[in-house]
């Protein structure tokens, strides 16, 4: 599930987008693809170290996680709030207010603003991944239409000529960031195909990152993070993000139902000179993901240099969401079962965005996030931030509930139920996405 922050131009979600772990994962994916670390993209796959700087010693009220938010504050907050709302939890008022308060006057979001009262200036590192994630969360939470529209207006203003987006404006487009923004546009009730720069839409950019029939048979259908010297290299994180974005979906996907199971369709060759439409491209990307999962005991491998055969848990979660979005129910169940057995330690170390990714993966694939491999992911996610305004999930830490009780003010009463943000990832897609946290 894709995606960043105030770093250099993105290069990479894990599968889905950008907490710091996702940022690290996207960076790894791009590094493996381009052999050059251009930047960090979206959030969740590698645990980050405790905050070294002074600003993290006193984190702001309402923020999820206890680690340095410099590179992933808005990303992890957005995923946490979105995941809660998706499974019927009414998030904390202070948590929602913190996210909304991070927005710059021009509509953009940076990864973290220690002093929201200070106006954004030219040195503020505005980020499309953070902005796209915030739009997806605020749109589904409701009551923030002005903030959502301002953010979308800013995203449109930094769209590249190819129709896509990079993490940082002024740099080349990438698959993860483009997918995160597609999700944001759909969440804002826009048709992504109608948001064009010249005659190019986001989908035009997205399909340009896909490897076609001129690639090795085992690589066909995969997506690259972005071209390197005019060449495309397969990237599982970018593929998970793009397989989601190509379907016009965002991080939160409604389960298709247990009786729905569409087979994956590999890229059809010959005919590689003709670019497929977005849905066909997404389907071919899904087929590539399934092949990679089948070859690796139902998980994706980390692209971090020196990682060897280390699993990329975040990218695997993003892949589950992408497969579920394509109604590939059987294919999504296999990696979901792997996550149930192998994600606990990773999520505990990585933090709120990791728990959110797992909640969204379980929900999309028709599982129960409250009974996931013997764990209650919803309660674990809730425990990383202020007490929710209302939830059917039991609390994981009663002491924290008592501590946060006074933080709840009069808030907006949202309707209970399962909701989703239509249309990376990030990972990846936090591997970016882009394709992928703090705890």
Describe the overall structure.
InterPro entries: Terpenoid_cyclase/PrenylTrfase. Keywords: Membrane, Signal, Transmembrane, Transmembrane helix. This protein has 15 helices and two strands. With 439 residues, it is mainly α. α6 runs parallel beside α8 and α12 packs across α13. The protein is globular.
Report a brief summary of the structure.
InterPro entries: Terpenoid_cyclase/PrenylTrfase. The chain has 439 residues and is mainly α.
Q: What attributes characterize this protein structure?
A:
globular, disordered C terminus, disordered N terminus, mainly alpha, Glycosyltransferase, 1% strand, 439 residues, two-stranded antiparallel sheet, 15 helices
Q: How many strands appear in the DSSP assignment?
A: 2
What order do the helices and strands follow?
EHHHHHHHHHHHHHHHE
How many structurally independent domains?
A: 1
Uncertain runs: 1-17, 27-56, 392-439
Using the 3D structure, state the CATH architecture: Alpha/alpha barrel
Write the topology of this structure.
Blueprint: E1 14-15, H1 20-34, H2 73-86, H3 93-100, H4 128-141, H5 145-157, H6 175-187, H7 202-207, H8 236-245, H9 278-295, H10 313-325, H11 329-342, H12 344-350, H13 352-364, H14 377-382, H15 398-404, E2 429-430
Antiparallel strand pairs: 1-2
Protein name: Squalene cyclase C-terminal domain-containing protein
InterPro entries: Terpenoid_cyclase/PrenylTrfase (IPR008930)
Organism: Streptomyces rimosus subsp. rimosus (strain ATCC 10970 / DSM 40260 / JCM 4667 / NRRL 2234)
């Amino acid at each position: 599930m894709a995606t960043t922050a105030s770093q250099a131009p993105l290069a990479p979600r894990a599968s889905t987008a950008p907490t710091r772990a996702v940022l690290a994962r996207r960076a790894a994916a791009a590094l493996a693809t381009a052999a050059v670390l251009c930047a960090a993209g979206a959030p969740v796959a590698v645990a980050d170290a405790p905050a070294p700087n002074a600003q993290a010693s006193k984190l702001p009220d309402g923020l999820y996680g206890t680690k340095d938010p410099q590179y992933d504050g808005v990303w992890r907050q957005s995923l946490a709030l979105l995941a809660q709302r998706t499974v019927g939890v009414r998030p904390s008022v202070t948590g929602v207010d913190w996210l909304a308060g991070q927005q710059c006057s021009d509509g953009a979001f940076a990864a973290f603003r220690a002093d929201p009262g200070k106006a954004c200036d030219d040195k503020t590192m505005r980020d499309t991944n953070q902005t796209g994630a915030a739009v997806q969360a605020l749109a589904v939470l409701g009551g923030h239409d002005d903030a959502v529209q301002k953010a979308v207006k800013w995203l449109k203003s930094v769209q590249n000529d190819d129709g896509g987006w990079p993490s940082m404006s002024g740099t080349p487009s990438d698959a993860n960031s483009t997918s995160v923004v597609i999700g944001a546009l759909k969440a804002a009730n826009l048709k992504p195909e109608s948001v064009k720069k010249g005659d190019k839409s986001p989908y035009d950019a997205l399909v340009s990152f896909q490897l076609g029939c001129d690639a090795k048979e085992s690589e066909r259908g995969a997506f690259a993070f972005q071209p390197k010297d005019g060449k495309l290299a397969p990237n599982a994180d970018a593929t998970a993000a793009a397989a989601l974005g190509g379907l016009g979906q965002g991080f939160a996907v409604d389960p298709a139902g247990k009786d729905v199971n569409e087979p994956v369709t590999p890229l059809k060759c010959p005919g590689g000179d003709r670019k497929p439409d977005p849905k066909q491209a997404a389907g071919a990307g899904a087929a590539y993901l399934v092949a990679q999962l089948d070859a690796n005991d139902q998980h994706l491998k980390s692209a971090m240099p020196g990682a060897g055969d280390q699993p990329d848990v975040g990218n695997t979660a993003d892949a589950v969401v992408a497969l579920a979005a394509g109604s590939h129910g059987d294919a999504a169940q296999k990696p979901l079962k792997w996550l149930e057995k192998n994600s606990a330690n990773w999520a505990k170390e990585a933090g709120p965005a990791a728990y959110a990714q797992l909640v969204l993966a379980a929900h999309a694939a028709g599982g129960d996030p409250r009974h996931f491999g013997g764990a209650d992911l919803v309660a674990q996610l809730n425990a990383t931030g202020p007490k929710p305004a209302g939830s059917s999930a039991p609390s994981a830490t009663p002491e924290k509930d008592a501590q946060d009780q006074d933080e709840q003010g009069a808030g907006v009463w949202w309707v209970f139920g399962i909701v989703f943000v239509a249309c990376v990832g990030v990972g990846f897609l936090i591997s970016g996405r882009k394709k992928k946290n703090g705890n």
